[in-house]
């Protein structure tokens, strides 16, 4: 059983028109891959818990990073003694913010891999494959809470190190979003015309992760930079990140939570990140203007 904690237009849309997921890999309007006619939805976390019949096994937090501090009280209501709270946000900031809200013992850092966008309240489109969710306990272990996601039908798995997996995604998606926003180009251009710059930026992330103790190499992919490039080559040419789309639209974005946090991490461990610093300096004025006008 799944419940949705939502508000305002999204709540009204789910109640009146349900929830639709479309695969738009072949273009619009796409193919309906999932449909819920009458989602269990509420803006009241206590009412949602009662309707679910008790504390949820897992809470998947799918908002932007900026919203997390404002969700703290609602998350505390939803979190029972054994509930796992799963982060899905891009970047490295979300797990700590969730730990501040509900306690580190409840937080399962997660890594969602999917290209998706909300086209309107109650309508979500995806491109590419069906996606997956990696998750693990804070200490890296696999527990029954991790297994609950797969048991619920989610394409979920637990890596050897959830923190290394988080940084592997950062090495791809934050680089893609940052360089893509700075140059106003999708992944198809980044992996071809701007391949050298993309490669250098990925190398900077890998170096920061290594300085923090996270080895991004795996048995199947001993070179994490080459692995990120293979991932780039496998994506739909027109793919962009949510941060990139927000910046292009003049909206407040996760620039600081993703790229800013990454550059600060490099500074803290003494690892130079010149290309990422340059992207941040180019994008920061646009972010400031978007927030001033919000």
Observed structural traits:
single chain; 294 residues; alpha/beta; three-stranded parallel sheet; 47% helix
H/E order of the elements?
EHEEEHEHEHEEEHEHHHHHHH
% residues in beta strands: 15-25%
Q: Based on helices, strands and strand pairing, what is the structural class?
A: alpha/beta
**Helical amount:** 40-55%
Q: Uncertain spans, ≥5 residues at pLDDT below 50?
A: none
Summarize model confidence as the mean pLDDT: 94
Strand runs, count? 10
Morphology call:
globular
> Radius of gyration, Cα only, in angstroms?
19 Å
Number of helices: 12
Amino- and carboxy-terminal Cα gap? 36 Å
Question: How would you sum up this structure, described in words?
Answer:
The protein is an alpha/beta fold and 294 residues long. It is 47% helix and 18% strand. The chain contains twelve helices and ten strands. It has helices at 8-17, 45-52, 72-78, 94-102, 144-151, 162-183, 187-190, 195-211, 224-234, 242-248, 255-269, 274-293; strands at 3-5, 19-23, 31-36, 40-42, 58-61, 84-87, 107-108, 110-120, 123-135, 156-157. Strands 2, 3, 8, 9 and 10 form a five-stranded mixed beta sheet that branches. Strand 9, helix 5 (144-151) and strand 10 (156-157) form a beta-alpha-beta unit. Helix 8 (195-211) packs across helix 9. The chain is globular, with a radius of gyration of 19 Å. The model has no long low-confidence stretch (mean pLDDT 94).
